[in-house]
Amino acid sequence: MSLVRLCSFAASLRGSVGGCAVRAGSAGRCELCVRAKSRFSGISSLSQRRTFSTVIPKSEDMKKRVLEQWQLLDVLEARIQQLQTDVASDVQKVQFIKVPAHGRAFSSGRTHKGSPQEKPDIPKSGKPVSKGTKSSRWMEKLTREKKNKLKKQQHLQQKLQTSVRDQNSAKSKGSPTASGTAHKTVSSKAKQNRLKLSEEIQTAVSSAAASKKPSKKKQKDPKNKVPDSDGKGGGEHARLRDEQLAEAEELDGKLGGQAVQRLAAEQLQLDAEGAASGDVQLSIRSYLEACVFMGDLERAQRFLLSQHRVRSRRKLLNTGVYNIMMRVWAKKGSLNQIGRVFILLEEAGLKPNLGSYAAALECMGRSPHCPPKVISRCLNQMEEDGLTLDDLFSSCVFRRDEKDMLLKAVCAVEPGYEPRPQVLTNESWSPLVHPFYTQRQHHRYPKLDLRQEELQERFLQQLSVEQACTVTIDSVEATKPVTDKMRRMRELLAEQRALWGKLLLQALRESKMILANANTRDYRLNLYPYLCLLEDGEYVDIMIQSVANMPPSGESLKVLARDLGNKVYTKYCVRQKIQNQVVEKLGSIYGAYTQLLAKDTQVSRLLPSECWTRLQAEQSSGPSLEGDDTCWPHIVTLELGTHLVDMMVKSLKIHSDVLNPSQDRKLIPILYHMYTFRSTRQVGFIKPHPILVQMQQDAMETRLTFDSYVMPMLCPPVPWTSVKFGAYLLTPTKLMRTVEGATQHEQRLEESRQLQPVFDSLNQLGNCAWRINEPLLDIIISIFNHRGSDKLDIPPPMSEAPKIPHFNPQDPAYTASQKALLKREVISAKKKSSEMHSLRMDALYKLSIAQHMRKRTFWFPHNMDFRGRTYPCPPYFNHLGSDVTRAMLLFAEGKPLGPKGLDWLKIHLVNLTGLKKKSSLQGRLQYANSIMEDVLDSADDPLHGRKWWMNADEPWQALACCMEIARAVRSPDPAQFLSHFPVHQDGSCNGLQHYAALGRDVIGAMSVNLVPCDEPQDVYSGVAQQVEELRARDAKDGLKIAQVLEGFISRKVVKQTVMTVVYGVTRYGGRLQIEKRLKEIENFPKEHIWDASHYLVRLVFSGLKEMFTGTREIQDWLTESARLISKCGHTVEWVTPLGLPIIQPYHRTRSQVLKSSIQHINLQISHDTKQRPDTVKQKNAFPPNFIHSLDSTHMMLTALHCYSAGLTFVSVHDCFWTHALTVDTMNKVCREQFVALHSQPILQELSDFLLHKYCSGLSTEAKTKKYQEYRRLMLLLTSVPQTGEFDLQQVKESTYFFS
Hints:
This protein has 48 helices and 26 strands.
């Protein structure tokens, strides 16, 4: 029922029982109706008074009727209160007027206006009032709702402590109860259309100040607390509870009172914000931004108002959503519209933020006749809200000339004002890096071996690549001769693609026309704006390219839709930056930034991030380089991609006789939508027609098209200076890789003020320049284009794939067992063929990218996962890849070998063979010298010589090292030989090293080389030896599987399981690892693999449990802590010693169905913060994730200090790379930083953080059900595992710590 009808009905009802106590107009309406009519003239007919005839009943019936009418009247009044904010946007003041008593008591039908008497009680005598009436049920419902609301408020007040409760009490105005007699009357403002423009914006900004009070929901008086209903507790129970409470309070006292209250309040605020946000809010923001970008402002404004008018949807809006429209009107200089949006903010109970005031001031700067007093009023109001001008310029993200217009408005009232640049203080730095930033007198940062002019040219090349968003390169298969059949098929494919492009273009335009007119309800989001962000031809190119890249076996609909949606989003982001005039400013700053890196410029003491920040401050005018655009929710990306896939399936067709003219000619789809099973789930699949597959295979096209972010960068990456800016020039890149749709990580990062060391370490890794090892690349390509090699990890061509047998299942000649066997063979052949295609295409992409980068210098920008582990951004070709990929990479800068460099090359070669793991460095060097003849033969004739290198663990890297050694020893002076080859130093089971250091475990430290030894302690070989002894004993006792395993247990079989046990691998996962290793042994009987893997994983776990008791104690403490935290309803969070916030995104899985015309997609979402944590995943993942965060911290510290020492340094997690000349320096830095890291009280600091985070203010919750769980958690966290007596300083002298 509308507000106008409610008011009219209420007024009429009052008239029938004694007259309306609220002032009525000439038409018999209350003043709220009159105001509503003045705003909504189109529905004035609804506001006309309705008349009711009243028949006077007998006295008792009359009393009953009066009571029911007044009960219904109370319901209507409550409904009016709910609806008033939706229609009375200009409400400024609310008055409460008591209803005269005569209006509630039945008399002769008249009332005495102004009588201040209260409503008399209904007489108890007479007939009882029926409780089955409609009005009584409504009253009971309202009463229940009010009681529930009261309980919720009291619960919240308990959490927010007494101080917060007092504030709420002071703001409370009292709320009407079910039998209350207060009614609201509204006083009107002067009509806004009579205000001048300056007065309107002044009024709007003024009303924003008043939004703090009316926006607060009226709260119950905390004095009216409902007493605890639990009165059954006896004396013994009370005594026990008091003892537990005293113990908890004693522990709680260690946390500090003020800090506890502050953290508790912050946590509650974060939880409330998290519950209010989500995919829906992101969808609203992205939809509005899309409408604005495509220029459809009417659609954007209509959509915002439709969301605002309905309270249930208004709750999903925040100030940022309104700011989107403010920004639009600011560009147009429309103060009138800005004022209206401020009023909408007030109605929504929201407070203007920096973005709101920035838009208002920008609008004033664009208005030539804006009076200075209006600007002053806005600045004063901003100051009253606790916001400063410096915050405005340092925190807001500006587009085009927004900042200049804003500064123009400010200078109109404060001449000479200049924004002050934000200065980072060293107070937020971790103690681990404080000396690094404050003591720079001995730092010598490395330069690139390129001139400034070359770097600027490379910037322009990279810029053109990213503006195009795609790169087309030659395939390494282009060297094959072109046959007539290939040429004919290529021409046919080109002709068909041109036709498909026309069909898709027509289908896209028709789809846009339908969607543009199908939006019957404004609050409904549809895909129309997302289909207008790019040119129509760009959507068509994206779809055609996805058809070309589709594997013969097909692709999952969800994966294909996600990729299509992401491609559109990437192009949209690049177009936005171009439209916002970012490119010009980026070029100017990057040109100056090259002075820091080029070899022909002066040496600077600035780090890359510091230099970039300074240059941005110097060139402060114009747009901000870091964007504030909303990341599309995963559901939006999928919906857009699914729409495009549906268009492709329905539109793309081909003639059935295109390859065989003798067949009947008809149009058939080239893509089919089908279903298949993966495990037990049915999955939608898009599969190409066999005719299309045959055409593509016969054509053997020699051009490959990639997205620009797939390729290495042609210039040094932009340094990371904030969470949202770094890496590529224009392509959007996340600082932290997360699950699709998870936003909690980014929120924690944006709140953190300690990320500078993380930024600088990522920048150091990204600034390493690379080049291709061309002789090795030629050898790999020759094998790839011939027949491949399984032994050398070069996938064979599809011509080597097994033939899929064909048979007729209906043929009676086959028995049931024969049919079953043939079906299994078909499934196996199809699976093998699909795997071969995937591996072949992966190798083709890597080799083609390497061939394209031949003779060029390139860079890999870096980001990290949620644990802090770093990764190169290009997905296919990088130094984290396989042995083949690593072997093709060299440092672009060469350094002389020096006196010990050649020895390190030889030792590195032996390490790659895996033959001398137990030998000392001197022993490895002697072995290398003894096989120099094989080394030189491998370098000179790798494919037809003795082929010694092929038997190494890492054959391609071993061959590359052989070639480098051969060139060095044949040079006139090996010490002066310029080497580009990276030498690796690998941690000795790095996870166990961190555990041993955490627990100061002497035995564990010796096992993993933290203690100086003459020869390395190989924990993998030790476990393998122990397993072999147990196997021999079981074999002697007659155990068959132990006898089968004789001679097959090696270091390699158990290594992966031993290495990953510390990272939380289960027995199931360990069995799969061992199974894979056994399958790689050629002569191991395949029929015994299952039993052997089960048997071995049990022996490996038993051996490790005996060897590392201290490690198990810490692991158990971490696991139990995570279990209790999760049981209390929280996800596990911590902060690394370097200041990086980490949160585990494991929640209970919920299903969300994406409905589309092609298929309903069931999404399994496990990162939703509104769901309870997944206790099993939280507890199992905490120990390995915590150790991963420590090894990433150690790597980052090593990277920073190697950079300050002038070294080239990169890492593959716990494997560190540098030039042969600087291996000794890197080893020294690596050990020093490990000792510095573990000299911090890591476990104690973790305990303190978790106590403050999860156990604050427990004494106020002693009566809740979860109190015992919180108490157990508090007791556990205060019981930090005891440490041993290992001296960390010994690590500095340990040769084999990293070797």
